[in-house]
Amino acid sequence: MGRRVRNPHVPFGNGLRTVQKRCMNEDAAAYLREWFDRMAPNYDRLERLLSGFRPVVVEMAAPPQGARVLDAATGTGNQALAFARQGCKVTGIDLSEEMIKVARGKDSHGMTVFLVADASAMPFPDDSFDISVISFALHDMPGSMRAKVLEEMVRVTIPGGIIIIVDYEIPRGFMHKLFIRLMLACGENVYVPAYFRYDLEAALAGLGLCIEEKCPVLRGVGRIIKCRR
Q1: Is 73 in contact with 64 (CB distance < 8 Å)?
Q2: 12: left (phi over 0), alpha (psi -120 to 50) or beta
Q3: Fewer Cβ in 10 A, N or C end of the chain?
Q4: Is 68 in contact with 131 (CB distance < 8 Å)?
Q5: Distance between CA atoms of residues 164 and 21, nearest Å
Q6: β-bridge mates for residue 224, sequence order
């Protein structure tokens, strides 16, 4: 009887493991692009677990009609579309062309502009957006890229504008740590452990941002941080 081979296009399969083994010897952007290109066809299976916080992000941002919103690392576009349904002018960007294809496929009414672009070197002028958001993406990046992405979010957001970050909380309780270990075992990439040694709030303060509100999500495994530029 032959050995069963898992489909490399299924999340957490052998294809992703292969990418993971190569990543430290390659450009981070190229690694992440390939990682999420492989994830794209099945990414929304995971999104079902995360989707509950999307309306909370919109509520915390409190966008006026016509607000210009950036969704950085948009993935399959769920957060971007949540803002678009509230009458915002939304741009979603992602490194992964395959993720952007999925996002565009959901946007049958053309409510949102979806672009393949690097959030660490955005193709937008200064002060282009009233609100900038990034959800569950910073933990996937090496430290240098994470810093550049935050700097770019500040640059493209207007003075007085809103910047919202959603990501994992630092593990504390036993069940919390168990959940994080499960996520790593299921295929989160190699940059995740370093993220849990990262002081996000200090980084935001260092960029001159004022934290106005924090909200736990996913039973405390994640958190939303709302900042004012």
Answers
A1: no
A2: left
A3: N
A4: yes
A5: 32
A6: 166, 215
